[in-house]
Amino acid sequence: DYAAIYVHKSSGFSIVNNVVRDSFFGILVEKSKKGRISGNQVLGTATSEDQSGNGIHLWDCDNILISNNTVTGMRDGIYLEFVDSSVVKDNLSVKNVRYGLHFMFSNHDSYQGNTFERNGAGVAVMFSKWIEMKNNTFVQNWGSASYGLLLKEIYDGEVIGNTFDKNTIAIYVDGSSRVNYTENIFRQNGWAVKVSGGCYTNHFKSNDFVSNSFGISYNSML
């Protein structure tokens, strides 16, 4: 894939304080470990998914820190697939066509302190285990089928201290179990939480629901 910055089979790399404009993929990292991607700006002008790749894209990596980056105008702001034991922290992902953050088949990861604003959808976390989602802001991810956070086939996760403001659906959950939702703020969303079938042993504690059109729809078992 065409990328402004491409890393392959590397260890101990750093990609710091770069500005990438009008690329297909911005930063593409494959089969690498123990790296840092920090302080970069990836700026695109995509208006549809087929016009652009992802801003920061990792595949088959582990122990990566992605922090303090700004990504806008790409397909997905940040994309992780088969990425373990990594941290996504203090990034701004805004006005991306599909997802602000999208990751699949990735375990033991944490994302915290990020802002996901006015993307096609905020964050999609799929087919992953032991994910910590803490102190993030999901704002104005709005559209006919949009959401702040999608959890699909997630197990043993933590959703703590996040703010969901003016999303179509703040959290949509499908087939996810043993997830704790604690001290989150849901403000002026369409739906605050929608839970579909196949979700078990989930816990909601000390969350605030303020001026949402609808609160919680739970079509499963606690």
General description of the model:
This protein is 0% helix and 58% strand. It starts with a strand and ends with a strand. The chain has 222 residues and is an all-beta fold. The chain has no helices and 26 strands. It has strands spanning 3-8, 14-16, 19-21, 25-30, 33-38, 41-43, 56-67, 70-72, 78-84, 87-89, 92-94, 99-104, 110-112, 115-117, 121-129, 132-134, 137-139, 149-160, 163-165, 169-174, 177-182, 185-187, 191-195, 203-205, 208-210, 214-218. The strands form 2 sheets. A 9-stranded parallel sheet has the order 3-6-8-11-14-17-19-22-25, with no helix packed on it.
Helices, strands, pairings?
Blueprint: E1 3-8, E2 14-16, E3 19-21, E4 25-30, E5 33-38, E6 41-43, E7 56-67, E8 70-72, E9 78-84, E10 87-89, E11 92-94, E12 99-104, E13 110-112, E14 115-117, E15 121-129, E16 132-134, E17 137-139, E18 149-160, E19 163-165, E20 169-174, E21 177-182, E22 185-187, E23 191-195, E24 203-205, E25 208-210, E26 214-218
Parallel strand pairs: 1-4, 2-5, 3-6, 4-7, 5-7, 6-8, 7-9, 7-10, 8-11, 9-12, 10-13, 11-14, 12-15, 13-16, 14-17, 15-18, 16-18, 17-19, 18-20, 18-21, 19-22, 20-23, 21-24, 22-25, 23-26
- What's the order of the H and E elements? EEEEEEEEEEEEEEEEEEEEEEEEEE
Shape: globular
Number of helices: 0
Largest sheet: 9 strands, parallel
Low-confidence residue ranges: none
The whole-angstrom Rg is 17 Å
Strand order of the largest sheet: 3-6-8-11-14-17-19-22-25
The whole-number mean of residue pLDDT values reads 95
Strand content: over 45%
Quaternary state, please? single chain
Distance between the termini: 43 Å
The class by helix and strand makeup works out as mainly beta
How many strand segments? 26
Helix content: under 10%
